[in-house]
Each structure stands twice: as C-alpha cells, then as structure tokens.
Amino acid sequence: MECPHFDAGRCRSCTLLPSPYHRQVADKQAHVAGLLADAGIPSPTWLPPVTSPQAGFRNKAKMVVSGTADAPLLGILGPDGTGVDLRDCALHTPGLQAALPVLAAFVTRAALSPYDVGARRGELKHLVVTESPDGELMVRFVLRSQESVARIRKHLPGLVERLPRVAVASVNLQPEHKAVLEGEREILLTERATLSMRVNGIELHLRPQGFFQTSTAMAAALYSQARDWVDARSPGTVWDLYCGVGGFALHAAGPGRTVTGVELSTEAVAAASASAEELGVAGDGRSRVRFEVGDATAWATAQPAAPDLVVVNPPRRGIGTELAGWLQDSGARHLVYSSCNATTLARDLAAMPGLVPVEARLLDMFPNTTHYEVVVVLDRAG
Questions:
Q1: If pLDDT is split at 50, 70 and 90, which confidence band does 339 have?
Q2: I want to staple 296 with a disulfide (CB 3.0 to 4.6 A). Which of 11, 33, 170, 241 is the partner?
Q3: pTM of the complete model
Q4: CA distance linking residue 284 with residue 309, whole number of Å
C-alpha cells in the first residue's frame, strides 16, 4: 500500500508499511509463538492466520481536531504539536472517507473552535466517527465544555440533511487537559441511541461510549472462530467475561446451553441485553443468554461453581493473577482467550498450567502496525 502522508513523514502510525504484507503477518505469528514458547507454554496447533485488506478496513475514525473553525484539520498532532490533516487516510472505510469532509464543513458552519493544546484554548478536541456494516454513522463531538452544545444542536438538522447516514450523534465532555480521548459524560443529540453493528447475522448495538472491534470483518472472523470452538465442545454452561456488547456470548448461544455475559459498563450490558431480546434468547433457563454488570474477576470469584467453558476478552492488561489463579483451580473444562496483547496473554496462560492450549489463530486486526489479535482455545489437562 502507498501512503503520501507516510512518504512525506507527516504520519508514521503505520510503522510496518514498508514491509511486504505477507512478511508482516508471518512476523506477528512468530512473535506470539515465541512469547508462548519463552513462557514454557505447550505449543498449540496454529490455524492459518486471518489476513486483512491493508486499506479501507477501519470502521472508526478517531480524529484530533486542530487548526481553526474556518479551516479545521482532522487527523493527528505532529511531534511539534502541529495539526496534520488525515481526512483522506486510506485505512478508513470509503464511507468514513466520504463523511469526514462533510464533518469538517460542519465544524466551520457551527463555529466550533478546535482545541489548542499548547494554549489550552478552544472547545472541540476530537471527532469520533463510526460506520456500521449498513453504512450508518455514529458521530461524537468531544468537547472541553458545554459552550458549543447549543450550536451543535442548532446545526445538526443541516448536517443530517447533507449526510443522511448520520443515525446517532452525541457530545462527550472531556474538560481535563490530558491525553485522554474522552470523558465520562455523554450527551445524546439524536432520538436513536445505538448504532447497529450486524455481524454474522447478529445485530450488536453499539452505544456512544461502547467498544467494538476496529475491523468489522475481523470481528466477524473472531466471533466465528470462537463459536466453532464452543460448539465443538458442547458446553452446557458458558461465561463470557469482559463481554462488551455481547459478541462472544451471543455467538455462543445454542440449544440446551446457558450463557452469562459479564461487563463493567452498564451501557454495554444494556446494549447486549437488547440484542439478546431481539434474537429471542434473553432470560434465564436453558438455551438462554443473560448479561450482568460487574467486574469480571470479582463476579467470577464470587460464584458458587464454575461453568463448563469460559470466554475471556480482556483489555491489554490481560486477566491478571487473581482471575488466572481462580480459573486454574476452578472446575471449568475449557477456556477461549481472545487477546490484543500477546505479552499479557503469555503471562496469563503461564499461570494456568492446568488448561492446555489446543488451537490458536492470529487475526491481523491492525495491518501495517505491530499490533494484532490472537485467540486461543484451551482444554483442561487430563
């Protein structure tokens, strides 16, 4: 893939861009396999890696807003703090690339002053735009204060007229001067509160502060792989810890099977529960899926008994020693571990020697970078 921003030195986010793509994927698989071997973990059977297009795969654009209200820049800040406009970034889906110039014009129309990091002045810090598989958009304005909210509301009908694909719009308030993308408070501006992310025929509902995989195609492959492993083991009970909007849990649903998803975010649990209702699998009892708000470790360790199979999809820090120790000593027969950080994956698996890796698969969620997703299925030894 060629990128004029990379060639000119304006953006170096895609650090592996000069490397042939097949080499990128091979090096990533060698990296995770080496980490597992160094940790003394038995080598699983590696399934063929799931590759990605090098361009047009990102369903979310997280754009720093700089410049002026009359001439906004949407992209990143360079090392010297100068804004770099990347609204034509080839990583984004074509739908996002088409939407960003319209949103830049909206910044001017609504007189939204970009936040100046050096001067600590201005209002609009980021634009975060997500595209669904059906082409609908969620647009979030990350502001320093509520000063601009009324103007955004006033001009929003004009934005929807120019960009009818906008289904959900919100303001996020991030008043602090630090490198944090968003704050805790979200102000919904549209009647609709969720974006429908349809994956493998399952409608997942994404709320403004919810998490969804960067590549919809890779998310579909990830959930399909986990579903195949779960079905092959026919568990009667399944837990999905760190369940987010319920992707793994809803894919794990099946006849005679109860699935419980646990997630700290109240909004994510509400979204997951809505998806279960629509699929007709919500509630308690056999062949049912339910979701609870809670910390994964605290919730799991407080339960009277373990399920047949556990799915974990933790953040980069991994599941940690307490949950790993509980899983090691529990009666759970199987574990599906989805990881975005192979270093913490290796650490966690080393703490669970009673669960043996059987198969693993690398999914290149982030081509042109050193990041990737890996999913492993483990069975209880003996």
A1: very high
A2: 241
A3: 0.94
A4: 18
